[in-house]
Amino acid sequence: MENKNNKKTIRAWAFFDWANSAYNLVITSTIFPAYYVAITSNKANGDKVNFFGHSFVNTALSDYALSAAYLVMVLLLPILSSIADYKGNKKAFMIFFTLLGSAACCALFNFDKDHLEMGIISFALAAIGYAGGFVFYNSYLPEIATVDMQDSVSAKGFTYGYIGSVLLQLICVFFVMKGKAFGIDQALASRLSFLLVGLWWIGFAIIPFSVLPKGSPNAQKHDHNIIKGGFIELGHVWKKVKEMPLLKRFLPSFFFYSMGVQTIMLVATGFAAKELKMATEQLIAIILIIQLVAILGATLMSRLSSKYGNVRVLIGVVALWIAVCVAAYFTYTQTQFYIIAVVVGLVMGGIQSMSRSTYSKYLPENIPDTASFFSFYDVTEKLAIVGGVFSFGFFEELTGSPRNSVLVLGIFFIVGLVLLFSLLKAEKNVNRNSDFSSLK
């Protein structure tokens, strides 16, 4: 884009986060996990469910479904994002995945204990829609904002996402808590919430779709077909990444701490519901607290980065995540969980926003193939989700308690922290005059 830092464009871009973050809050974090645990737990089978003839622990099954969904995206995104750059149509991919995700959420309206397979499949498809749309959304960041503005613009996107998702969450809470006054039981209220998420998602996504550019082709004409062209472009980007000394160090650290961050965000509600026997309204209250504090966290980290640098701030945040894992293992009361939730909210928004802007800053300015470069970022994140969520579910089934899985996540954070210290050291040694040498 020729005109970066355009307020209208940035606002429209941020509204994409507003639109799809409702999925992340209602479906993966609050009402769906509570509803799912409630309808799949009974006195006869405990927490065991039958999925296409195979028996699973209910929460482990949902963890595996998410892992499978993100694994699909790991395999698809490098190809799709390369094609998006090659053909200049990344907005079309954003629209496709948004339609897929919103339709899957609407389909969850029909999910009950007698339609487990349909519900789990829709749950996985919604995750694919969310993940797929986000990679192309992220790739717009270096196009719409200059390097000095990317921290604040990235934080603005997450802030819009938190505000929008909280607003819809409050509407859903009204259905869940006050539905009986209108003849709606809690189960139906939960399913209505899933339908509202789908409508909210596609409805507000119209704003960015009407303003953001479709993208411009990144290359001269090629005679090979579109799939081959995508792989060729991906190969070119990989060669460029290997020549960027800081970027190739940042990605491994991002991978390991993301295994912890993304998994905690996805399994926290299920953990509280099973281990602490917290009711749906309590779980909703906790996630609302996290979302509201996360708004402060994203803004705070952006300001701290301008004073101390992105990598130092990330080191401090990851250290806090390690403390969260240790505290969660020893959490046995609801009050303790509320305290942890406040800390999680503070570091959750900060680490997501800071990670995205850090990666963006390590890229050379004015590169045309942003979707391909951001596919590496998103594939790294999705692989982290696959590994983290699968590990959580596996160790829960293996040991019989999700508490042991929390300790495994702590190990991932420790590895990420060590790699961040290595990155900090490398940053000092890289030529500061290079396009991607240092963070400002």
Overview of the molecule:
The protein is mostly helical and 440 residues long. The protein has a single domain (7-429), classed as MFS general substrate transporter like domains (Growth Hormone, Chain: A). It is 78% helix and 2% strand. The chain has 15 helices and two strands. Helix 1 (7-27) runs antiparallel to helix 8 (186-211). The model is unreliable at 435-440 (pLDDT under 50).
Give the tags.
440 residues, 78% helix, two-stranded antiparallel sheet, Growth Hormone, Chain: A, single chain
What percent of residues are in strands? under 5%
Q: How would you write the strand order of the largest sheet?
A: 1-2
| First-to-last CA distance | 23 Å
What is the CATH T-level topology? Growth Hormone, Chain: A
Which helices and strands occur, and which strands form pairs?
Blueprint: H1 7-27, H2 31-40, E1 48-51, E2 54-57, H3 58-87, H4 90-107, H5 116-138, H6 141-144, H7 150-178, H8 186-211, H9 226-242, H10 247-275, H11 280-308, H12 310-329, H13 334-362, H14 370-399, H15 402-429
Antiparallel strand pairs: 1-2
Provide a concise account of the structure shown.
With 440 residues, the chain is mainly α. It is built from 15 helices and 2 strands.
